[in-house]
Specification:
Helix content is 74%, strand content 2%. The chain is mainly alpha-helical and 472 residues long. The strands form two sheets. It has a two-stranded antiparallel ribbon with strand order 1-2. Strand 1 and strand 2 form a beta hairpin. Helix 1 crosses helix 9. Bound molecules: phenylalanine. The site of phenylalanine has 15 residues, from helix 1, helix 2, helix 11 and helix 16.
Amino acid sequence: MSTQTKKSSFSGSIGFVLAAAGSAVGLGNLWRFPTLASKYGGGLFLIVYLILVLTFGFSLLITDIAIGRRTGKSSIEAYKLVSPKWGFLGKLTFAVPCIIITYYVVIGGWILKYMVASVTEFAATSSDGYFVNFITSKVSPIVFMLVFLAITAFVVYCGVEKGIEKFSKYIMPALLVMIIGIAVFVICSKGESGTGLDGFLKYITPNINDLKTASGTVDVVKIMNLLLDAMSQLFFSLSVAMGIMITYGSYVKPDVDLSKSVKQIEIFDAAVAFLAGSIVIPAVYAFSSLDEIAKSGPGVIFVALPDVFAEMGIAGKIIGPIFFLMVAFAALTSSVSIMEAIVGAGVETFKLNRKKTALAVALISAGAAVIVCLGYNVLSFGINLPTGATGQNLLDVLDYISNNLLMPIGSLLTCVLIGWVVKPQWIIDEIESSGHKFSRKKLYVVMIKYVAPFMMILLILQSLGAFRFLST
Ligand code: PHE
């Protein structure tokens, strides 16, 4: 039985699916996915990722959403209702969006900057050092971050149905049209080093040799890395374990078919990731060299692509700005969901007024995000993170704490709570409460009790540096 008491809600299933897809589709899909797919040679990574989405990802996503709808509450209150002794998990989960918002809006600001610069100073964006000069400058990143944050806060301020749902209903279909359009254009184009079609075929064709060592034996280290990378990508990409999907779930009406909605959200998310790869990999293949993706690492969107757009000539001048507009849309719907997870919980726990809470959260986030921006200049430092990566600034460290530590730990505990303490039937009842069928029920039980916790432990161990020997 649903104990829903909240006034705010999505108008129906489509509004909910688009808002949740808006949260899921973000920089993880457009930026991180193509980089990872290219690191593992495309095809094989795509297959592994898809299998994980339909099993592991689906279980985590449906758990969060069902907890939200059944309790009718955001993270802090929801876990208390699931089991009174597990209230601490609500607080831990709530901490994640509070940390992420402070740096997600900074990256959102970078995207806005590129969107503007790809129109006003097109040639300059492809010049060496443009990106680093921008992010290390003192004023500009703060200004763009504040604009991005203001748009985010405005949508949240307008409420669930009039703000988030309405915004997602326009933005998500537009994003889909743009990404399909750009992918088709890129695949049909011809550059100096090849055709987009060849790049696309390279991207989708599984090549078993990618998983072999130079001497022809199976490369266990690479397979292990592929699995770990695919899992952590999925985790981030579906926005699970950070209270967001619990909050959104709490706004879903009791008659909505959760099993079907989750299917649509995961398909949307995976499709956008696939399409992003169909843009980035063929474009870089045809106009530059695939090595560039590995070399520029996370800078692929800001470093390698502007180069590609410049190589495309006049077409690049049109495609470039549309591409960054699309990325901005994706990032905005994600940051809206992060802020909503904080505001929704704040309103509920402290019985605050929604609009005032939105303003207060925006102001506090702005202050914290200014500090994150300054982490690239006056407050910069360098430390080594347990994963082996260098934490060169506040953003890397905050990302490590939230994504590599708090999220898998929170998720592991959620699996234990649902799988072993209250039992999976607690979730199954909610999904079937409105007479709908739970199509992957058996799979769900196995996943939440055994497979997902095991995978979480692997991810936590990786974050603590236990598998660093794999990279040598
Ligand atoms: N899921 C989003 C993506 O794929 C990112 C995100 C992270 C959204 C954290 C909300 C919170 O990029």
